[in-house]
């Protein structure tokens, strides 16, 4: 099995479990919406930047943001650096999902550490952080 697939399988499981926890807590979002939502910066993000970060077209990102706005998870506000542009910002409602997601991530990481051991988990984290230095365009 190639390394990409070996990385993807646990990520997919983590993502599915986080989504189950978030939707189980009453946050009505789809996976596609969540992928856009999690890429919004603390001060807001322009739609074009969201599309690029989520690796979707600007039209798809716009559609997902429209849905999230109707659900009350995001708002569009003027960009203070450019009067013609708008930023997408998360609302307090969306921020309420963060502790749910973080708690699930902590449970998953504890489970993985239990399975592979503390030393290997630390090595895995260190190796992935090192790889992030050359693979993460948003670093």
TrEMBL record:
PROSITE patterns to which the protein is assigned, alphabetical: HTH_MARR_1 (PS01117), HTH_MARR_2 (PS50995)
Keywords of the record: DNA-binding, Transcription, Transcription regulation
Gene3D superfamilies given in the database record: Winged helix-like DNA-binding domain superfamily/Winged helix DNA-binding domain
Domain of life per record: Bacteria
Domain HTH marR-type: 1-133
InterPro entries registered for this protein in UniProt: HTH_MarR-typ, MarR/SlyA-like, Tscrpt_reg_MarR-type_CS, WH-like_DNA-bd_sf, WH_DNA-bd_sf
Annotated GO biological process: response to stress
Pfam family, one: MarR_2
MF-aspect GO terms: DNA binding; DNA-binding transcription factor activity
Name of this chain's protein: MarR family transcriptional regulator
Organism placement in taxonomy: Bacteria, Bacillati, Actinomycetota, Actinomycetes, Pseudonocardiales
């Amino acid at each position: 099995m190639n390394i990409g697939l070996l990385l993807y399988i646990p990520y997919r499981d983590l993502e599915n479990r986080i989504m189950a926890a978030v939707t189980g807590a009453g946050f009505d979002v789809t996976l596609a919406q969540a992928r856009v939502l999690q890429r919004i910066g603390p001060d807001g993000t322009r739609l074009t930047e969201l599309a690029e970060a989520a690796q979707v077209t600007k039209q798809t990102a716009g559609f997902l943001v429209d849905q999230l706005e109707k659900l009350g998870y995001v708002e569009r506000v003027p960009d203070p650096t450019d009067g013609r542009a708008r930023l997408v910002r998360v609302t307090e409602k969306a921020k309420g999902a963060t502790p749910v997601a973080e708690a699930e991530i902590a449970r998953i990481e504890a489970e993985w550490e239990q399975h592979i051991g503390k030393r290997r988990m630390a090595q895995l984290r260190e190796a992935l952080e090192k790889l992030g230095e050359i693979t993460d365009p948003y670093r």
